[in-house]
Write a structure and sequence with these properties.
Chain A is of the alpha/beta class. In chain A, 53% of the residues lie in helices and 14% in strands. Chain A has 2 domains: 9-169, NAD(P)-binding Rossmann-like Domain (Rossmann fold), CATH 3.40.50.720; 175-292, N-(1-d-carboxylethyl)-l-norvaline Dehydrogenase, domain 2 (Orthogonal Bundle), CATH 1.10.1040.10. Chain A has helices at residues 19-28, 44-48, 57-62, 74-82, 87-90, 105-117, 130-135, 147-160, 172-200, 205-212, 220-230, 240-256, 262-279, 288-291, and strands at 9-13, 32-36, 52-53, 66-69, 96-99, 121-124, 127-128, 139-144, 161-168.
Chain lengths: 293, 293
């Protein structure tokens, strides 16, 4: 049976720039909300609106029928789900465990196996659409795991996203997100190099975009991030150091599958150069600063 | 004064897959057409419709008020314009010389200088949009050269294209096209790698595109060429060996300007591998065959 506010209490772990508005949408839909995050201050607005604070993932899990997590790194996901006093060991039998962090497909499969041993169902359901998508409940949600569990979780996903697709078994949601990041990695390199070339050649930004913005080069990376580059706007958007995290996961998985991805490997190398040069907190379009002269 | 069918005879050199339909549009607009191309057979339909055949660029140039060229490589452009018995030496004083080949910005500047010595005006005006764009007169035309000459040539461009933009002085049209090709080069690498990863991970092509096709990875390369990849369709489109030509020009120009473009350099290397493996006549999306396992 699909979850519903009448029968389902939801625990939400990780109230950062993405998690806080996502949890807020679930609360507004009428679910009884339980929250835990590293800095309690970030939970203040949700608590004021009626959410119950917990001092640990264990306590939160014991009080929830569904647990949603949106944390930082795969190591955080592993701690929250599989560490001592963590979610899987303390979850109610039958509960739904939904990790929406962009994380490792292999780890997602391990969590699914451990959850099953406790009679729980887990889903990996990373998102794209950024903080704006999170605030406007317009995320693209790519889910992996049991199809029945996905159908059950759908009302929660519908609070947070617009494009919600079941990609396959455990880890498939993460694999889909990785495919997205692999496409983006080389694309933003191409956009940055093309614009660096054009500016160096003395073209006008406006004439350039009029000619190439709607043809074979066109797309989100050129039309949205390229336009920011041409205004010298390198604010995030999507943070360089988060992008490096995703590229690292994707390269590890590719290697595990015996795939060589030279474009991704070079992109990661270039983004690491950018980070080392002080660009960690830039948006990904900041890669342009590496090429311009 | 803008060119018009009443006062302007047009010579067209290079009647390949792009040039033939482009010349046809000019002829249909009512211009007296003169033609020359390496294989006379390719001119048959235009001659039947009233075009005058010439046995050399020199003879064609002497009979034309405006000369349009759409040939293969920069070396062909150089031969046609600056070689012995070529266009510049034989052009009518005051005539408009318009090269629409994708070619070298530096060569375009040299032709402009030589043309000026003979009292002629030259434009570099490469296009994007491919054979379909050429047939449907929907090309994007990126022009460099004197603005007055561009305005004069506009009625001819309007026969062949939809998006027609003056990019700046001599070579600026070619620079704009190079910027476009630089963006595309890394983007198709990202698309091919992302799809190779997704297929290896066992995702469904349909679910994948539903999740990532309209987000930050979306654009012509993923949505049009990626969709062909997922159907194992590697037909051109845009030929691998033409793409390598463009990448070679762009890298030479970048080096001349002191710009390092590692994404483009690696893309060229990968496309050369593809060509060596028998992929010269594939469409650019054929690069996927290098990554899939």
């Amino acid at each position: 049976m699909p979850v519903s506010p009448a029968t389902t209490s939801v625990g939400f772990i990780g109230l950062g720039i993405m998690g806080a508005p996502m949890a807020g949408h679930i609360q507004k839909a009428g679910y009884k909300l339980h929250v835990y995050t590293r800095s309690r201050a970030k939970a203040a607005a949700l608590i004021e609106a009626g959410a119950t604070w917990h001092d640990s993932p264990a306590s939160l899990a014991a009080a929830s029928d569904a647990v949603v997590t949106m944390v930082g790194y795969p190591s955080d996901v592993e701690d929250v789900y599989l560490g001592k006093g963590a979610v899987v060991a303390n979850a109610r039998p039958g509960s739904l465990l939904i990790d929406m962090t962009t994380s490792s497909p292999s780890l997602a499969a391990r969590i699914a196996a451990e959850a099953a041993k406790k009679g729980c169902r887990s889903l990996d359901a990373p998102v794209s659409g950024g903080d704006v998508g999170a605030r406007e409940a317009r995320l693209s949600i790519m889910a992996g795991g049991d199809k029945a569990a996905f159908d059950e979780a759908m009302p929660l996903f519908a609070c947070m996203g617009k494009t919600i697709v079941h990609q396959g078994g455990p880890g498939a949601g993460q694999h889909c997100k990785m495919a997205n990041q692999i496409v983006i990695a080389s694309t933003i390199i191409g956009v940055a190099e093309g614009l660096a070339y054009a500016m160096k050649a003395g073209l006008s930004a406006e004439a350039l975009m009029a000619s190439i913005g709607s043809g074979a080069a066109g797309g989100f990376q050129l039309n949205v991030l390229g336009a920011r580059i041409l205004k010298d706007d390198f604010a995030p958007g999507f943070l360089v150091h988060h992008f490096i995290k995703d590229q690292t996961i994707a390269l590890e998985e590719a290697e595990r599958m015996g795939l060589k991805l030279p474009g991704l490997a070079q992109a990661k190398h270039l983004f690491e150069q950018l980070a080392a040069a002080g660009g960690r907190e830039m948006g990904t379009q900041g890669i342009y600063t590496l090429f311009r002269r």
